[in-house]
Design goal:
With 449 residues, the chain is an alpha+beta fold. The protein contains 16 helices and 23 strands. It binds uridine-diphosphate-2(N-acetylglucosaminyl) butyric acid.
Amino acid sequence: MKNHHHFPGSSPDSERITLRMEKIIIHGGKPLTGEIAVSGMKNAAVAIVLASVMTEDKCVIENLPRISDVDISLELLRARGVRVKFLNRTTVEIDSTVMDSELYGEDDLARKMRASYYLVGALLARFGKARVGCPGGCDFGARPIDQHIKGFEALGADVVMEPDVINASASDGLKGASVYMDVVSVGATINVMLAAVKADGVTVIENAAHEPHVVDTANFLNACGADISGAGTDTIKIKGVKQLHGVTYAIIPDMIEAGTFLILGAATGGRLKISNVIPKHLDSITAKLEEMGATIEQDDEAVTVSTTGPLSRVNIKTQPYPGFPTDMNPQMCVLMSLAQGVSTLTEGVWENRFRYVEELKRMGAKIKVEGRTATVEGVGALNAAQVRALDLRAGAAMIVAGLAAEGRTEIDEVHHIQRGYEDIIHKLESVGADIRMVSIPDNLFDKAN
Ligand code: EPU
């Protein structure tokens, strides 16, 4: 996340999110064995939490991942007068019967994550206008939102980009339209879908993203009374409805969290069962793990990974779903480093997703990046080192590398990891990892002793 520490939040909760300074300490080199249950999907949760206000009613969201991006989403709603109440650890009730469209004092908060842009689609649908701080999120080069804006404009909204704020309004109401996406974009597909749900008439989104979180958001909205068909294909059709109503809805499991743990199992050479997953969502990942020589066993809601010897090289290009996910790029690069032979990893989604390579090189990896392709020479084993979590998935990759490497690895800037991995320390401890989180003053104390 860019400028993370420069934007203190507007409430005690967001300050807690901002100012927490922790690091992870790992003593790696042990095979991990056991079962890890995956949490709800981050990128579905942030969309569904923000979309829930379109119902003007009470929604109960289950299987909510307890991560800081979800905290920020809930905080963005609280800042506008929405009532948020946890019914248990992973179930939240969001009561948006009362919501103030004019309150927008949380611009700094919006900048702390990417998904705050969904509030634009949701507020446009509810109030016909939206004023939201510009989104932030992980830094992998330019992250334009031109396709979101193009879609809103096609539906009849005026969108004005102020330096730090997105201002959108549809004084004559939103009207269904045909929207062709110039690039396959998860965010733009979901955002235009949100805005179209209560528009007058039919909207057709062409060249839509297929990701499971697009489908989950559509399923949630349909459960609320929306009329969306085709989610998960190239063409999504939305017939505008007058009103939505509240529901109880459970978020799908996080395929990227699951994929990260599968790679961890293959990297550490034990036997890891990853449960509470939808195995189909993991096909692109398990196919590559098998190609590298790992053993994959599947049942209805779990995938188990084990290895019987060194892994072999592989070539991968990240692509929109159902291709190999870009959000698995850094973790896969760690596994390629541990394999035998020379692999290539081509990034097909983001302009610059290889910043983590410098950190991995500190652990002995041999990687050369040219443009969007990394050539990864397998080195068999990595060495422990002090590294940084430069973004969310890069941070996850450092954990995988640290658990695979013999010795003590320290990972700084772990707030990035906390944005998207629920309770990762306990989950990993439960399968035998020697990993702990220390706050920085504790850590200084630790070193002094
Ligand atoms: N793009 C445009 N114009 C737009 C929107 C996107 O040119 O208006 C381009 C982007 O520059 C990029 C490509 O389209 O090259 C795909 O971007 P997309 O819009 O799909 O990404 P996003 O919605 O901003 C989500 C996830 C990311 C994940 C990408 C791709 C959320 C909150 N974030 O981002 O997740 O990498 O889709 O799958 O859903 C993560 O979880 O670690 C993460 C970064």
